[in-house]
What we know:
Layout: E1 8-10, E2 12-24, E3 27-39, E4 56-60, H1 73-88, E5 90-92, E6 102-105, H2 120-131
Amino acid sequence: MISKSGRYWTTGITVTWVPFAERINDEPYAGWHAKLDYTDDGFANNDPDAGEVSTEGTLHTRYPVRSAKIRSGLSIAIDTLMADANRLGIEFIGVEPDPEPWLYYQGDGEDSENPPPEGWRETLTVEAQRVGFRSYLTPAQ
Length: 141
């Protein structure tokens, strides 16, 4: 790894709504996927002679996460990803001019393969505020 800090970082979490994810007791349910891409702080400066090579990866929910009786699937997916990222030493950082990381929707809601549910911007903004992130409707600082 090329790293000054010895850690990995990400600028946020990307979520996707899956309207018909799985079947439970033969009933279809909807759910949320969540993922983050992470990298070390090396950039275009590999030095193979010194054994310094930049690395990156992706962490994501394996299956869409459905809502539980008292929590939304979106909250559960985000909290799970954040907890696993923390265990792996992945830092959440903002990118100027935003000091907070972002909660994104796949394709910013314009990907015809992954259409967002109605009210998705408001939903993501509430979740982002809950975990200290920014999202589409977060007021500018």
